[in-house]
């Protein structure tokens, strides 16, 4: 005795056809994304890429300063002191920028990403102490091509200088 609700061969065929269409559509979407995304990502504005790289380098230096402080109880004014023969940091590796530590003492460190062409923002990172532990901040110039002043510490909080805004 056959079950009462068994689908006919014609119904089975139409169900498979619907699944086939959905599967084919999904495959086409995935293939379209695989073709479109790489070309889209490579077209990201070169100035924006340079700015992201500058922010990344500032982040590396400020993190390096935090570690250096914990080991030496002071900050350094040399990027070479931060990674001891490890070439993760290269001040010339960011196209359009000059990266340099502009101030370092026992309580405060400043690193700047200074643009050397039009269309880029300036960045400054700072590390200071809060309750004996190093904390960092990143400031970005409000306008393209604008110079940026050093952050200041107000009541233990890093505050961006004039003409800049805090990124983190």
User: Widest sheet: strand order?
Assistant: 1-2-3-4-7
Report the C-alpha radius of gyration, rounded: 27 Å
The mean pLDDT is 79
Number of strands: 7
Q: Give the domain tally.
A: 2
Q: Would you tell me the structural class of the helices and strands?
A: alpha+beta
- Biggest sheet details: 5 strands, antiparallel
Order of helices and strands, N to C?
A: HHHEEEEEEE
Strand fraction equals 25-35%
Number of helical regions: 3
What characteristic shape results from the CA principal axes?
extended
| Through-space gap between termini | 73 Å
Low-confidence stretches: none
Structural commentary:
Helix content is 39%, strand content 25%. It is α+β, with helices and mostly antiparallel strands and 168 residues long. The protein has 2 domains: 33 residues; 121 residues. Strand 1 and strand 2 form a beta hairpin. It is extended, with a radius of gyration of 27 Å.
């Amino acid at each position: 005795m056959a079950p009462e609700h068994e689908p006919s061969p014609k119904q089975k065929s139409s169900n498979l056809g619907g699944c086939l269409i959905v599967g084919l559509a999904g495959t086409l979407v995935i293939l379209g994304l695989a073709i479109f995304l790489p070309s889209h990502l490579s077209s990201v504005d070169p100035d924006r890429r340079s700015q992201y790289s500058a922010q990344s380098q500032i982040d590396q230096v400020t993190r390096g300063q935090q570690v250096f402080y914990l080991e030496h109880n002071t900050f350094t004014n040399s990027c070479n002191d931060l990674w001891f023969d490890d070439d993760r940091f290269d001040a010339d590796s960011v196209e359009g920028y000059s990266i340099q530590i502009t101030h370092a003492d026992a309580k405060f460190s400043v690193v700047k990403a200074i643009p050397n062409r039009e269309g880029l923002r300036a960045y400054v990172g700072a590390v200071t102490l809060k309750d004996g532990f190093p904390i960092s901040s990143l400031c970005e110039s409000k306008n393209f091509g604008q110079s940026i002043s050093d952050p200041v510490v107000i009541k233990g909080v890093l505050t961006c200088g004039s003409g800049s805004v805090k990124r983190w």
